[in-house]
Write a structure and sequence with these properties.
Layout: E1 4-7, E2 10-13, E3 18-24, E4 32-39, E5 46-51, E6 58-60, E7 68-73, E8 78-83, E9 92-100, E10 115-116, E11 120-125
Length: about 130
């Protein structure tokens, strides 16, 4: 089992940057694929970025590719999402998620993940 806590959200102007962090508990952190999702008011939860157990496989939503970078440090039980060139449409609650996997694979659907953090608000002003 894994407990996840996100941090780093806030208010920034368009074009600015934020770095989200996800701190995970548990000794088996490196056994989970990790992902970031976001959910804006009135919209469904949307995949943002995912990273495999080893960090060897990474996948981004087209909407953030080239602007966001996901990374993980298994020794520190942390996952990060560096968000650059932020746009107002990036405004959403951002969630960290952990998924049980048997190989070095990236999940992209919410139902594929087993554990979720409480979320952190990202607001980008125009």
């Amino acid at each position: 089992q894994v407990q996840l806590v996100e941090s780093g959200g806030g208010l920034v102007q368009a074009g600015g940057s934020l770095r989200l962090s996800c701190a995970a508990s548990g000794r088996t952190f490196s056994s989970y694929a990790m992902g970031w999702f976001r959910q804006a008011p009135g919209k469904e939860r949307e995949f943002v970025a995912g990273i495999s157990r080893s960090g060897g496989k990474i996948y981004y939503a087209d909407s953030v590719k080239g602007r966001f970078t996901i990374s993980r440090d298994n020794a520190k039980n942390t996952v990060h999402l560096q968000m650059n060139s932020l746009k107002p449409e990036d405004t959403a609650v951002h969630y960290c998620a952990a998924g049980i996997v048997n190989t070095d694979y990236v999940y992209t659907k919410p139902y594929e993940y087993n554990y979720w953090g409480q979320g952190t608000q990202v607001t980008v002003s125009s």
